Amino acid sequence: CPRCMQCDTKFDFITRKHHCRRCGKCFCDKCCSKKVPLPRMCFVDPVRQCAECALVSQKETEFYDKQLKVLMNGATFFVTLGTSDKSELMVCRLSNNQRYLVLDGDSHYEIEIIQISTVQILTEGFTPGGGNTRAIGMILQYKVPGSEEVMQMKFTAGEDFSCNKKLSAAWLAAMHKVSK
């Protein structure tokens, strides 16, 4: 690798080459100066990464530190299937292997994450100036395995004290970040 793969600076005795620990490409010190933890690759301490990889690693770390824990702990929602008028109180959480959305109540559902096609967060409190909004629910569309049929579920945060609205709002916010 005779040149920096970002800025094309030639490597010599003074301009040393460095490898990004995430992508493995060669960079000069200016283009590979960020030091970010990379736990998924077993680097406990912060390691040298190029700017692009450092940004991805920071977002990934935020996801694992914040959103993943919230999603796995779960929250309580009123869940409505399809166009039904009847809703059921269910605990919704991400499975331990992070492959399924598990819903438990009187009924039990497991939706494979890869089958989810649309996540729409429902909000209230919108003002024309872009003021404070809060998540009150979500509409989830997914394919049923073995068919091309698209199903829909509506999740609504409960209004009573048995349903922790703050927890439900945090879960919805985490789901919204994940879906982006």
UniProtKB/TrEMBL annotation:
InterPro entries: FYVE-type_Zinc_Finger, ZFYVE21_C, ZFYVE21_C_sf, Znf_FYVE, Znf_FYVE-rel, Znf_FYVE_PHD, Znf_RING/FYVE/PHD. The keyword Metal-binding applies. Residues 1-53 form the FYVE-type domain. SMART domains: FYVE (SM00064). The keyword Glycoprotein does not apply. GO terms for molecular function: zinc ion binding. Keywords: Metal-binding, Zinc, Zinc-finger. This is ZFY21 protein. The lineage of its organism: Eukaryota, Metazoa, Chordata, Craniata, Vertebrata.
